[in-house]
């Protein structure tokens, strides 16, 4: 190989990234073996940044005196943020961190392009002038604190090389660079001046087969690229295949998903990522790993209230101590929080309210107590190293990372985070004592900056970003994403450097012309990387139509058919297609035994009528719905408040006469008191929303007054029972009934009343073989002689109305007699009661005997809001696979 023939003792090979260095070192060993060598000196090949770091280390070792602290990129960012925070412009900065990032970037670009920050050309825009004041402050701070940024460090190295105080290689060969900044160029020239030979080299391939292909969208590009790579690998297991994805870090998960789907087809590979034949270069933000995410969330907890979703994540987190031991208790505790619609609660309230966690999850409560007891230390100010100890103590108190053994990925992520913690302590050198909030902010910042990738073995298919792939030798290369909107990239000049200066000096992302030149150059480099190259672009992105980038428009176009790929059959389809459905008619559960206690009251009849399986699942399997927390009062809470308020109200009024005689202001006060007490009782947990509850109280008082007008207009009555409980046995089921209210008329007959805040339809609710609301008919059957009617008191702002049916005329306009309603003879009230008896007995008998068939009363309405679909599998009738792939 020509390149390696140029390597001699004292030669250093420089590359733009470590991936190319690693490939060259590997190839050098293979080349030496081809020469029949048994041993050879290692190739000194490293990325340019590592070479500079090596020079710096050599310089530091040589210097007897204290050397400046070389700032890491994160330390530098924090220093810039500090400068911006203390600048007069801070009050206008919407995002200080982003502004600091841009200022830092402008500083380095100017340094790399050898423009001093005080250059008069920077005075031409207001933003650049502001930047100059920040840059002066940064320079001063660095001088005072003996700090050095990475670009200034190169300047220092150049002077040291000039003084012959640093050893440099005899020969430097540069390979794979798309561009070299003037400062790096100056460093190389200085080396050259001191006697080092500098060679700029490229790897060229002679015969290349280049084509471009248009595919529907980015997903289609990724999937086709994966299928193409798989087809090559099957034919040529030794082939080196490169897949280049622009902005790989942003689409990493989609790429993994498509490649995994393709390579797991027909079980060729398993979903275990360590055995898949592809390797993706982009890592993930360390903070996005669940074990680290959980730790950061725990450290973020304070004395403030915690929203329900965070409470839920604490209760379900496997990364908190005793999570396995208390798993069921924690899950049950969450259902209690949801039952009471707890939308937020502080740690203190969790420990001390009436639903205290201490009674349900004592070990978690103990951990919370320990954490809370150390919260007072957060009022102090400490150095970063001091806060590191505190963070670790807090996490230990929580029992992080949990009692189960961490898996290999979690272990590696934890190790990476411990390194971040170690780095964090070095902030002592650049920060004074800081508050807990600041300390946590910097920890989160450092963690988010850390791009971490779980180690994976070498693989024949390399998935790379655009810059990484340049000059890496492959046999086959696919570069996707080359449409006219994405390639060349759009210019993105730095706002703190005047555009004219950026354009003149051809700084990165300065203008469209510069981006086009850069794009052409990088595309040419990619073209020389492999024997077979495919460029692809999408035809659309969302609704926008796309064309090939002008940089590749001259390349020969091919179609999907030209690739001759085998049909793609995702593993999900194979599994679905291989299904063998076995039908088992299992509609009958065991009959209720004498030792089985079934609670449910009238809901037994209601559920059995709606769907026998629903009754079985909810009442005997206890598969009840866990309600999600909702802001404010839920419909069920509002209904309960109304019931309680009416109970208290009629507890005082007793009969219509008293209601009619009561002075209006006394009645107003009574209604107000009843409503407020009811709200206080039901909505205790949401008492912090006082304004909202006040509005709800006013609304309810208005409704009740409107309703009382209807009570006043009725013929005379007395309220003889409120919330009365009655027990009965039907089909051997012991049932406890509770009825809202029983009124006695002047005739001595009784009517049964049920308050409803939702809509009611007596015809559907009470009649037919499967009544929706069997409660009142059931109650009616317990005292059929005295009862002469059943009524819904429908109280809601849309419809405020009596609805019901009776044996005699009740004098309430909307309530008809059975004779009128059902159009039968005059004795039909008793017949109706007997009819209800028969229907209800049948429902009870079916339930008791275990009748549990999937039979919704009205399909699809009955199933619409039912939570049991995953258990009853009512929708498991889909036989066709509607997915299609290219
Ligand atoms: S989803 Fe429909 S069929 Fe299934 S249990 Fe609920 S009501 Fe019955």
Could you walk me through the main structural features you see in this protein, from its secondary elements to its overall organization?
It is a single chain. By secondary structure, the chain is α/β, with parallel strands linked by helices. The strands form 7 sheets. It has a 7-stranded parallel sheet with strand order 9-14-8-15-16-7-19. Helix 12 runs antiparallel to helix 13. It is elongated, with a radius of gyration of 38 Å. It starts with a helix and ends in a 14-residue tail after the last helix. The relative contact order is 0.08. Bound molecules: iron/sulfur cluster (SF4). Iron/sulfur cluster (SF4) binds next to helix 25, helix 34 and helix 35.
């Amino acid at each position: 190989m020509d390149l390696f023939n140029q390597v001699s003792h004292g030669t250093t090979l420089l590359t733009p990234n470590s991936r190319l260095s690693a490939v060259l070192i590997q190839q050098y060993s293979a080349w030496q073996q081809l020469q029949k060598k048994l041993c050879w000196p290692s190739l000194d090949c490293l990325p340019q940044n590592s070479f500079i770091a090596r020079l710096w280390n050599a310089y530091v070792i040589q210097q007897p005196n204290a050397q400046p602290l070389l700032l890491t990129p994160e330390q530098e960012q924090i220093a810039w943020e500090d400068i911006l925070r203390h600048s007069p412009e801070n009050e206008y900065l919407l995002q200080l961190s982003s502004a600091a990032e841009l200022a830092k970037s402008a500083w380095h670009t100017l340094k790399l392009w050898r423009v001093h920050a005080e250059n008069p050309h920077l005075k031409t825009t207001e933003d650049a002038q502001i930047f100059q004041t920040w840059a002066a402050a940064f320079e001063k701070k660095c001088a005072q604190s003996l700090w050095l940024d990475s670009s200034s460090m190169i300047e220092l190295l150049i002077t040291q090389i000039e003084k012959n105080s640093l050893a440099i290689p005899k020969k430097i060969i540069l390979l794979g660079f798309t561009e070299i900044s003037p400062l790096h160029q100056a460093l190389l020239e200085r080396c050259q001046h001191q006697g080092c030979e500098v060679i700029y080299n490229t790897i060229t391939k002679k015969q290349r087969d280049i084509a471009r292909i248009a595919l529907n969208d980015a997903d289609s590009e990724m999937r086709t690229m994966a299928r193409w790579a798989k087809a090559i690998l099957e034919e040529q297991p030794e082939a080196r295949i490169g897949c280049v994805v622009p902005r790989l870090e942003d689409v990493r998960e989609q790429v993994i998903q498509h490649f995994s789907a393709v390579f797991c087809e027909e079980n060729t590979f398993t979903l275990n990522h360590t055995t898949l034949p592809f390797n993706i270069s982009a890592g993930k933000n360390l903070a996005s790993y669940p074990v680290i995410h959980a730790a950061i969330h725990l450290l973020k907890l304070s004395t403030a209230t915690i929203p329900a979703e965070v409470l839920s994540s604490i209760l379900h987190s496997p990364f908190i101590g005793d999570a396995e031991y208390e798993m069921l208790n924690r899950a049950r505790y969450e259902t209690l929080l949801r039952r009471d619609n707890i939308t937020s609660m502080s740690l203190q309230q969790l420990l001390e309210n009436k639903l205290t966690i201490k009674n349900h999850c004592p070990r978690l409560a103990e951990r919370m107590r320990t954490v809370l007891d150390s919260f007072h230390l957060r009022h102090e100010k400490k150095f970063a190293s001091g806060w590191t100890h505190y963070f670790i103590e807090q996490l230990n108190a929580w029992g992080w990372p949990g009692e189960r053994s961490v898996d290999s990925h979690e272990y590696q992520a934890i190790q990476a985070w411990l390194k971040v913690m170690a780095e964090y302590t070095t902030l002592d050198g650049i920060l004074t004592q800081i508050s807990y909030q600041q300390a946590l902010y910097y920890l989160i910042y450092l963690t988010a900056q850390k791009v971490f990738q779980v180690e994976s073995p070498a693989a024949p298919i390399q998935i790379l970003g655009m810059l990484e792939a340049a000059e890496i030798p492959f046999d086959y290369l696919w570069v996707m994403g080359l449409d006219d909107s994405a390639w060349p990239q759009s210019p993105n000049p730095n706002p703190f450097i005047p555009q004219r200066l950026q354009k003149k000096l051809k700084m990165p992302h300065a203008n469209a012309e510069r981006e086009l030149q850069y794009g052409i150059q990088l595309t040419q480099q990619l073209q020389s990387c492999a024997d077979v190259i495919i460029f692809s672009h999408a035809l659309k992105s969302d609704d926008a139509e796309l064309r090939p980038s002008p940089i590749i428009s001259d390349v020969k176009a091919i179609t999907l058919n030209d690739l001759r790929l085998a049909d793609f059959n995702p593993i999900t389809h194979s599994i679905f297609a291989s299904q063998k459905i076995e039908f088992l008619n299992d509609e009958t559960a065991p009959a209720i035994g004498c030792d089985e206690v079934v609670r449910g009251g009238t809901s037994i009849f209601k559920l059995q009528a709606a769907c026998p399986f629903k009754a079985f699942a909810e009442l005997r399997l206890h598969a009840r719905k866990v309600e999600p927390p909702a802001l404010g009062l839920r419909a069920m809470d509002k209904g309960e408040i109304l019931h309680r308020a009416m109970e208290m109200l009629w507890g005082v009024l007793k009969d219509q006469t008293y209601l009619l005689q009561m002075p209006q202001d006394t009645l107003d006060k009574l209604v107000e008191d009843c409503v407020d007490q009811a709200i206080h009782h039901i909505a205790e947990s949401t008492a912090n929303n006082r304004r909202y509850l006040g509005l709800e109280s006013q609304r309810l008082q208005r409704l009740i007054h409107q309703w009382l007008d209807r009570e006043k207009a009725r013929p005379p009555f007395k309220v003889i029972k409120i919330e009365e409980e009655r027990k009965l046995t039907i089909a051997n089921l012991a049932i406890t009934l509770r009825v809202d209210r029983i009124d006695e008329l002047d005739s001595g007959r009784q009517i049964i009343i049920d308050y409803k805040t939702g809509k009611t339809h007596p015809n559907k609710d009470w009649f037919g073989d499967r009544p929706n609301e069997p409660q009142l008919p059931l109650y009616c059957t317990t005292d059929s002689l005295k009862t002469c009617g059943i009524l819904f008191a429908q109280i809601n702002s849309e419809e405020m109305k009596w609805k019901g049916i009776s044996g005699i005329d009740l004098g309430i306009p909307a309530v008809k007699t059975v004779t009128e309603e059902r159009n039968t003879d005059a004795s039909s009230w008793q017949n109706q009661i007997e009819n209800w008896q028969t229907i209800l007995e049948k429902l009870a008998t079916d339930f008791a005997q275990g009748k549990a068939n999937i039979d919704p009363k009205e399909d699809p309405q009955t199933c619409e809001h039912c939570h049991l679909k995953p258990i009853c599998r009512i929708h498991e009738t889909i036989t066709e696979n509607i997915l299609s792939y290219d």
